């Protein structure tokens, strides 16, 4: 059960409207690492969690907070769009500078959203449920959560430097702080899973005896130069060995004969350059 408290978690009042910046803020709402993503990610992780108690409560508490972050951002977008050019475009575009500014706004916020936020990113691409990670394995999920919060904080930091509006900056300062806390909590929760004996370093902590024992401790060095082998923590400390000259273990990656009904180009005995027509064309090209 969810209840809506009719107050924002933190204030979202810009000093003045800015339709172009409203479009930029859409990334923090409906982008791949926006608040809609972490909201739905944590909700489904919580609903899929098979352990009642501290882990499920942590996930659901954070999920519920993220709903509030979507509300804050949507409110800020609506306020930034107050008096936006949907009603004054004809006059505004007479000024070249204003015309250029209007050219950077998201017209769908006016046409589709009626002067409000949309469930989309800063290019208007709709939010996608494929963005979320909710696997049921808490170690894998918490690591994904750390990455999501890191990317979200990174984008918030970039947007923070794209505005001089004190009201917008104040809200983003709050969001930056919450992203910091959330990264720390997921990192701590990962260690708690290990301390509780629920997970180990590798997710999932199973099938170690079944995996190929020749290839569970090597890094294939596939970059020019010797620098890879100079690594310390991921080699000596982790017991990982660098293969400086790895060789392929499989045969040619030849695709099978295509289904005739699909009309794929196919030479039954050799590749196209080896066919009679291919050889004739190559010989002709050589002569000319």
Automatic annotation (TrEMBL):
CDD domains: Mn_catalase (cd01051). InterPro entries: Ferritin-like, Ferritin-like_SF, Mn_catalase, Mn_catalase_dom. Gene3D superfamilies: 1.20.1260.10. It comes from the Bacteria. Belongs to the manganese catalase family. This is Mn-containing catalase.
């Amino acid at each position: 059960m969810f209840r809506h408290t009719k107050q924002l978690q933190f204030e979202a009042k810009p000093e003045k409207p800015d339709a172009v910046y409203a479009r930029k803020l859409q990334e923090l709402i409906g982008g791949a690492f926006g608040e809609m993503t972490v909201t739905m990610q944590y909700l489904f992780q919580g609903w899929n969690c098979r352990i009642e108690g501290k882990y499920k409560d942590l996930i659901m508490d954070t999920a519920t907070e993220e709903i509030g972050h979507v509300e804050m951002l949507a409110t800020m977008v609506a306020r930034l769009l107050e008096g936006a050019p949907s009603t004054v475009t004809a006059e505004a575009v007479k000024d070249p500078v204003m015309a250029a500014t209007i050219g950077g706004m998201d017209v769908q916020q006016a046409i589709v959203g009626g002067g409000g936020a949309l469930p989309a990113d800063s290019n208007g691409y709709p939010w996608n449920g494929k963005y979320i990670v909710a696997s049921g394995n808490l170690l894998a999920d918490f690591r994904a959560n750390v990455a999501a919060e890191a990317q979200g904080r990174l984008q918030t930091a970039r947007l923070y430097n794209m505005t001089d509006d004190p009201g917008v900056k104040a809200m983003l300062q709050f969001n930056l702080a919450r992203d910091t806390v959330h990264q720390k909590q997921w990192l701590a929760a990962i260690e708690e899973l290990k301390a509780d004996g629920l997970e180990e370093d590798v997710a999932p902590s199973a099938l170690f005896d079944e995996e190929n024992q020749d290839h569970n401790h090597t890094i294939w060095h596939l970059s020019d130069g010797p620098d890879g082998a100079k690594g310390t923590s991921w080699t000596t400390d982790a017991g990982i060995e660098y293969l400086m000259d790895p060789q392929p273990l499989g045969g040619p990656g030849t695709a099978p004969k295509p289904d005739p009904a699909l009309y794929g180009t196919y030479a039954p005995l050799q590749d196209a350059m080896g066919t009679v027509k291919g050889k004739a064309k190559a010989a002709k090209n050589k002569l000319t």
